[in-house]
Amino acid sequence: MSKAEIIGPELPNIPWEERPPECPEHSGVVWRYSKNPVIPRDLIPSSNSIFNSAVVPYQGEFRGVFRCDDKRRVMQIHAGRSKDALDWEIDNERIHFQPAEGFEPMEWGYGYDPRVCWIEDRYYVTWCNSFAGWPTIGVAYTYDFETFYQMENAFLPFNRNGVLFPRRINGNFALLSRPSDRGHTPFGEIYYSESPDMTYWGKHRLVMRPAGGWQSTKIGAGPIPIETTEGWLMFYHGVLTSCNGFVYSMGAALLDMHQPWKVLYRTEPYLLHPKEIYEQVGDVPNVAFPCAALTDAATGRIAIYYGGADTVTCLAFAKFDE
Ligand code: BMA
Question: Fewest CB atoms within 10 A around its CB: which of 122, 230, 289, 300?
Answer without folding.
Answer: 122
